[in-house]
Protein 1
Amino acid sequence: QVRLVESGGGLVQTGGSLRLSCAASGIAFSSSAMAWFRQAPGKEREFVATISRAGSTTYYAESVKGRFTVSRDNGKNTVYLQMNSLKPEDTAVYYCAARMLRSTAMGPYDYDNWGQGTQVTVSS
């Protein structure tokens, strides 16, 4: 059974930082591209960042480029999202997603498995 569990969300002031983690089980983690998406109230789920299976390639949404960093530890079956210089518009539920045995992608329908999400709220 595939399980993705996000943690690290919370309330932070504008300009602050948070580090999200996503612990995976039940999948061949090192063979899975991983990604972060987010969804704000009343909006569609949007791509944030993705990382290749070996961690050598990353892609970011323009809105977070230079502020967010995605990384992974295949020994711990965990993917991370370091979020710096947070803005109120970053407020959303953040989800991690896994794409088994395939390369990175930026569309939500390209991912097979999802976590339950963690809330990030940035106050102004």
Protein 2
Amino acid sequence: QVQLVESGGGLVQAGGSLRLSCAVSGVRFQLQAMAWYRQAPGKERELVAGIMRGQSVDYPEFARGRFIISRDRADNTLTLQMNDLNSDDTAVYYCSAARYRNKATLDGNGMDYWGKGTLVTVSS
């Protein structure tokens, strides 16, 4: 059974940094797309960063230049380095993976596996 467990969330001041990690276990096949999503109170879930099996990355405009996604070759760990955080980044952040889809979707629909999330709170 595939399990994704996020860690690294917490409270940080505006302008600060956080590094999120996602531990992946129970995988008996190659994962394709992996990604981080977030959902703020009252808002829809949105893509934060995606990474394909070949290490190609995809960032929405708000994350470009501030966030960096990476995955290890064995797909045991997915990380998200977040810099220059602001209050708009406050949300629950989720790790996600797809078995067949090679690119993460903007809203998370179609992704197969999800962690339970880790809360990131940015104080202004």
